[in-house]
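Much of our argument rests on the idea that a fold can be written as discrete symbols. The record that follows shows the chain in one-letter code together with its fold in token form.
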Amino acid sequence: MTKEYSVIGKSQVKVDALEKVLGTTKFAADYNLPDMLYGGVFRSTVAHATINSLKLEKAKALGGVEAVLDFHDIPGKNRFGIIIKDEPCLVDDKIRRYGDALAVVAARSPEILEAALALIEVDYNEIEPIFTFERALAADAPIIHGTTNIHQVKHLVCGDVDAAFERSDIIIENTYSTHRLSHMFIEPDAGIAYYDDEGLMTVVASTQNPHYDRNEVASLLGLPYNQVRVIQAATGGGFGGKLDISVQCHCALLTYHTRKPVKIVRSRSESTMVSSKRHPMIIKAKTGASRDGMLMALEVQMTGDTGAYASYGPAVITRAMAHCTGPYNIPNVRADATFVYTNNPMGGAFRGFGVPQVAVCHEGQMNQLARALSIDPIEIRIKNAHQIGSKLPTGQILENSVGFIETLEKARAKAEDVL
């Protein structure tokens, strides 16, 4: 019996296609309102420090400046974060990364804004910055948050790993490293805050998380959720990099105090400086297999740098752990992962949440095994591939839609066609 669908199997016009082609799409930076002010952020130029003094008087005295604010001007909670609330809107205790926000300014023109920001003076009491995983764990290292630089620790154990290695005919051991990467979305972070006709604090922003943003703005301003509205503008790329708070809280705080619309558009350099990055990781792997290429055991040790703030770090370490075996049946697994805080840029969501990093490891191990056993690299993958009914080390049973073998076979056929 043939079903008639309204969309599936039919050619459809993308709802925003015409505006994109004509160049009339309205992105966050394109919003302008009457009596609008231009907002900007005064940021730290050191990675780890306390503040001896922050002098705002000259900026406040400049003509055309309508607000210069620091953490004392926050009416609600000065902490936000997608999972752990550890990042200040404006620094109140100490600086934890280069580019931390110390003050915000609202002015009547971009030129006045830049002049005001240049008039702010800060005196730092610098602390040794922590830039490596090893230094973060040293006994005498300065502590970035709380009482330890350890951000998260995860463990996964399945089967009898030691016994499986003893039975293995071949063992491959390697260390893999992946580096920190920055999103380069076409549209830098931008947004505008204003009070609408009903008196609601409204923020229009380039964001992937308007519902989370609403909660963070309300918490910052000490307002109930139903007094804040966040609207996602057409967003020129995000890929995880616009899940965290960017300009939303700063715009809203300036509007709260001036009662006027305030727009902030980050420069490319500012956006790159403070937006979240892909977590750099070092992965040590030990894989055991039989002579015919059947996987028997895997031992993995992962270390990662979540930077100055948690962002999506707890999700990244969890998913990296859960996916460390890749799409392969490995009956005996022992995995340990440790993420630390450093004074590096913040690690967050970035196209895969830790899975691309561990893919470098498990695919590298499969290639090494294939080479050592003189087995075709696609054959050894098919031999160990997940299928319907496979059980993962986490205990999950794959009940449907497991297309890995079919994908490998079609990839091989295509490769043979073009070679």
The mean pLDDT is 96.
